[in-house]
TrEMBL record:
InterPro entries: DUF2793 (IPR021251), Gp53-like_C (IPR054075). This is Putative tail fiber protein gp53-like C-terminal domain-containing protein. It comes from Maritimibacter alkaliphilus HTCC2654. Residues 222-304 form the Putative tail fiber protein gp53-like C-terminal domain.
C-alpha cells in the first residue's frame, strides 16, 4: 500500500460519514471524498463490490470491505450505524431501565412523583387483547385513587380511600370534600352520603337528591328536581260530608294531581271536591250518587314543591 493509498484509507475510515447505505448505482457527479455503503446487485463502476464502502477520490472509486465493528453516520442525520460483519445495522443503546430512581418525560420527576409526564395526552393501549391499569395500596386504611386537580388543588377523586369501598367525591377548594357516590365490597348497591337527605332549591354542594318523611298524615318523597309525591294508605272518608287530608308536605301551589283508590268491597266512588297547597278534600258516593258511604281510600298526590 502506497503512502497516498494509506492516507485515503484513513480519510475513509476515521469518522466515517456515508452519503448513503444500500445504494446500488453510483452517483453521476460525486464529490471528492464522498462515500457510500454499497447494496446488493450493484451496477456500473460498483458492479462486483456488493457490501463494500466506495469512496470517490481523484476521479476514481476506491473500495474497502468493512469489518465487524466499523462505525459510521449518514450525512445529514444523527443515527449511528455499526457493521455486524455482514451488513450495517442501526446502533441501539443497551440501557437497564429496571429500578431507576425516577423517569421524567418532558418534565422532572421527584421523590413522590417518580414517573412524571408533561404532554397534551397519555396513551396506554393493549398488546394483543385487553389492557389494565393497576393502582395498588398496602392496606385497607391506605389510599388507591385517581385525583383530578385544578392548578394543583384537588377537585375530584375516585378510588378506594381509607377503606375498601369505591367512592367518588368532589371539592371546591381542595380541602373540604363531599362524597357523591359509594359502594362497598359485596354490597351491590350504590349509596352516597347525600343521595337521601335534605333537598334544597337552589341545590348546592352536599344537598341531597331525595328527601323522605312520614307521619300521621302519610308519607312524602321530594326530589331535587322539584317533584313531590305525597301518599296515605287507608284514609277514612266521611259519610255525608267531605273529609280533609292534610298533606304530609306542602306543594308549591294547588296545581297537582290526586288519585284515589277505594278499599274494601263496598261499591263506591271517591272524588276530590277541593284542594290547596296543604290539603285535599275527598267526598265518597255510592253508585246511585248518595253520599251515605264512607269507604277507606288510598291517596296519591303528585306535583311540585318549587
Amino acid at each position: 500500500m502506497t503512502h497516498n493509498e494509506a492516507l485515503r484509507l484513513l480519510d475513509t475510515l476515521v469518522q466515517l460519514t456515508l452519503a448513503s447505505i444500500g445504494t446500488t448505482t453510483p452517483p453521476s457527479t460525486p464529490a471528492n471524498g464522498e462515500a457510500h455503503a454499497i447494496g446488493a446487485s450493484a451496477s456500473g463502476d460498483w458492479a462486483g463490490h456488493d457490501g463494500e464502502v466506495a469512496t470517490w477520490f481523484d476521479a476514481a472509486w476506491y473500495f474497502q470491505t468493512p469489518k465487524s465493528g466499523w462505525i459510521a453516520t449518514v450525512a445529514g442525520g444523527t443515527d449511528i450505524y455499526i457493521h455486524d460483519g455482514s451488513d450495517w445495522a442501526l446502533a441501539t443503546a443497551s440501557v437497564d431501565l429496571d429500578n431507576v430512581a425516577g423517569v421524567g418525560i418532558n418534565t422532572t420527576s421527584d421523590g413522590t412523583n417518580r414517573l412524571a409526564v408533561q404532554s397534551p395526552a397519555t396513551l396506554l393501549t393493549h398488546e394483543g387483547s385487553g389492557h389494565q391499569l393497576k393502582i395498588n395500596k398496602a392496606g385497607v386504611s391506605d389510599t388507591a385513587s385517581l385525583l383530578f386537580q385544578t392548578n394543583w388543588s384537588g377537585r375530584a377523586e375516585m378510588g378506594i380511600a381509607g377503606n375498601d369501598s369505591f367512592s367518588i367525591k368532589v371539592s371546591g377548594d381542595g380541602s373540604s370534600w363531599d362524597e357523591v357516590l359509594k359502594v362497598g365490597p359485596g354490597e351491590g348497591v350504590v349509596t352516597t352520603a347525600n343521595m337521601v337527605g335534605t333537598v334544597a332549591n337552589p341545590a348546592g354542594p352536599g344537598d341531597a337528591v331525595f328527601e323522605t318523611g312520614s307521619g300521621p298524615n302519610g308519607s312524602f318523597t321530594k326530589l331535587a328536581d322539584g317533584t313531590l309525591i305525597c301518599q296515605i294508605s287507608g284514609f277514612q272518608t266521611a259519610s255525608g260530608a267531605a273529609a280533609t287530608w292534610t298533606l304530609p308536605e306542602p306543594f308549591a301551589s294547588a296545581s297537582f294531581s290526586v288519585t284515589a283508590s277505594i278499599l274494601g268491597s263496598t261499591p263506591a266512588v271517591a272524588t276530590i271536591s277541593a284542594q290547596s297547597a296543604t290539603s285535599v278534600d275527598i267526598e265518597s258516593f255510592d253508585l246511585i250518587g248518595d253520599d251515605t258511604v264512607a269507604p277507606d281510600v288510598n291517596l296519591i298526590a303528585i306535583g311540585r314543591w318549587f
